[in-house]
Fold these 4 entries.
Entry 1:
Amino acid sequence: MSRIKQCFSDLKSQRKKALIPFITAGDPQPGVTVGLMHAMVTAGADLLELGVPFSDPMADGPVIQAACERALRHHVTLHNVLDMVRDFRRDDIKTPVILMGYLNPIEAWGYAAFAQAAAAAGVDGVLTVDMPPEEAGEFTAAMNAAAIDTIFLLAPTSDDSRMQRVSEVASGFIYYVSFKGVTGANRLDVSSVATKLSELRHYTKLPVGVGFGIRDAETAGQVAGIADAVVVGSALVQQIAELAERPEVIPAALAVTIAELRAGIDKAV
């Protein structure tokens, strides 16, 4: 059983919902990331989502774009991100780690070679924003061969055929984008999300995580009432940006935020 599947199984038996924080690897400095990952787990994160810095993101709003720019100024590459995961695994062999990013760096590496390297480093899942399920056969085959889950996005505009197609190829969990637009916006409509998730569950038994627009414990709790996982990104990345000149305080500061999110989720479930 994969770490992601085991994590969701354990949480279900405890009647809990998953908290998945997102940070950009290497932001604001490469040396901060691994310690921050450990701090978030200690504070209540169940899975970790690491953004791979990329120069031309499509789904990310200005907050995460700026984080990518900060990391890229330190020349953080996909190879460096795998090194960070490898370092994290020295002390944590349980917490699932998901890489979120874009296809270009993986294409440049080669699917099979990347999958083998990612698995060796301790990566559990990959979410590639610009890889449509209709063209993902070779990609998912390489990831499956390395026992890496492939996570796909669905959105309010996804029709029944797209929900069915994603459900057929996805593994680990499905990531539902709560509104039309980029990360960091403030347009969360929980009732609309609930309706869409009800439709999606006709096609899949995988856990469903919801991201975009979740900014605090209150909204995290609202989403936890309807989803299996709550993904929080821009709110955390903005906090990192505000503390970028004092990187030594970032792990403790984000741990406080993670603990608040955890409490909001647990209170609502």
Note: The chain has a mean pLDDT of 93.
Entry 2:
Amino acid sequence: MSRPKEHDEHTAAALLNAAERVVAEDGAAGLSVRRVADDAGTTTRAVYSVFGSKEALVVALGARAFDLLGSSVGSVPQTTDPRDDLVQAGLVFRRFAREHPALFQIAIQRVDVSAEEGQGFADAGFRALAVLEDRIARLGESGQLGGRAVGSAVWEFHALCEGLAVLEARCLLRNDEAEALWVDALSALVRGWDSTESSRSATALSRAIDSADPR
């Protein structure tokens, strides 16, 4: 008869919650196995048993961030207006950044995260990105991307969301002011993709990429 596991998924979840709190207080640089264990009311042995190392704990936090973000964006209802749906997906990104600043710092901004640690949760990032790609692809299918590739639009949208999240975190904006700013900026980007000037820019970009020397 096999021995029951001493530490299960509940322990892992509790440790990740504790790690997120530690990072929220002192950043990823302040993360340690001892602090996480103390915060979770357990031992360092439990941390090593579940994750193996502090670096693996950081990887798990990054994966949690992207899994949460991807599932949240995926839960946004799809209506007959894919542009408004995408704006709503952007507001989901905003809620993620506000409610999980530590996860935003680790997964999106990579503050005090090594290249090896970042690579460890890269697959989770690609999964989350695929959810956003599906949403933006709907605009492409309806001719609302101005001729640009879905991949280009994905990075433009992501960059705007990340920038807005950083701006909101640094500025003393009222909640209603910040949300209005997000809606206006995201709407301008999404609807601007389908404009004449935007289409010309997308065509010029495609030509520049096609003519670039691969060497």
Note: The chain has a mean pLDDT of 89.
Entry 3:
Amino acid sequence: MQEFILDIPTDAVTLAEAVAWAQEKLSQKRPHFIASVNPEICLSARRNSTLQAALLAADLRIPDGIGIVLASRLCGGQIRERVTGIDLMEELVALAAAEGKKVFLFGAAEGVATAAASKLKERYPSLLVAGTAHGYLPQAADEEIACDIAASGADMVFVALGSPRQELFVAKHGAASGAKLLMVVGGSFDVLSGRLKRAPLLYQRLGLEWFYRLIQQPKRILRVRIMPAFLAAVTQQRLFTSGRRQC
């Protein structure tokens, strides 16, 4: 089931359902794009038609953020569980290790993707890392990166370039990468590498992971401040059309 949050379709899935969906898609030939939907991205997509088109082209759009859960509740929707990018990535890495699939990590600062891959290998010794590449490259290099990924034989690609570049990379170059699954993961490499500490479980369960990250990175205050504007926009656009739930 999909709900439309500020015209962006969002799948009302649990973490377990998202993993099952991904496992099924690994057996298919064409690439599949997993996007994350959060308040910041929804508002950005209203101003950026290219980003909006990339999100519409995704095959699965996870409800990544407490703001999306709140928006769904405001509209009488069914989204009750956050499916964070880092949680889904970790589950997919575990799946890759169990099924002998190759993963490629692309993005973040120089050395971070490599460090994240090393940490994941420590956790899952059987994991096959096809390669890594940092994200501090000009956008003109994206086509070459896609060719490198294809040459590596990666089945899954995790892209941490920040929005909207990560979504645009997958939408434009996903097919050329040859991978079955491509997922945008924002700042997940920083956490997985140990560069940043993830919020304690209590913060996660209370939907306050954003607050813990704000303590570590005060400059994120500008991103947090968009929440009131997001919820106001959702409230104004609360309606139902053509059997689809829209906020």
Note: The domain at 32-240 is CATH 3.40.50.10700 (Rossmann fold).
Entry 4:
Amino acid sequence: MLKLITMNIYSWNVNGIRAVINKGAFTEFMSAHQPDILCIQEIKARKEQVDIHLDNYHQYWTSATKAGYSGTAILSKVPAIQVLSNIPPNIASQFELSDNYGDTNSEGRVTAAEFENFWVVSVYTPNSKGKLERLDLRTKQWDKAFLAYMKDLEKTKPVIFCGDLNVAHKEIDLARPDDNHKSHGFTDEERAGFDTIISTGFLDTFRLFNDKGENYTWWTAWSNARARNVGWRIDYVIASQSLQKSIVSASIHPNQMGSDHCPVSIEIK
């Protein structure tokens, strides 16, 4: 009998790669999980600013123009065929990805790496902000531009996009839905954007295996929320529908400390 060959793909919003390294949490995570591919968000640094030694990994960074802000990266044991940073100019210009806060396409929010059988994309979706100042930019421009980009990539091979999408899709995805229907990350507009992702043929991989509540990926620093598991599920691994039969498992790793987010992962054959 042939042995089933699988690989694991992880995603983690580290909320500052230098901070998570200095805490020792990054080394701990890499040793414990040994991801084949790791998508990182909120790196808040340029590659040359980071003392990171990973001999077995190829590193692909997309840093923000603004120092110490945003940014995404992909680390992979297998070299990528090609790597693309940010949303392509033709799509970005079509959707006008700027507002009073800046140009989202200069914030290092997307890194896409092509591998033999699929694309892997690390994405850090803009936050709509506490008073919803960036809600229109997020829902009317960014969400549409990013989805258009993913569908373009999908024309060549299946896509797996991973990251902090800054939205809890359904009431089951946060601890206190009744209190948050008008809060950033759970507005009707943001949730509708996630609905559109699913309706165009992408899969929320975690929900293929787990339909239970109390599975969260982010916790506020206030009121001991993480210890009490008062959280939100806003970090995802989303995959093209054509990959469904290849996805063996999907997991959340709440015991991994070092950031206000925890890692999420899939295993794929």
Note: Residues 7-268 form a domain with the Deoxyribonuclease I; Chain A fold (CATH 3.60.10.10).
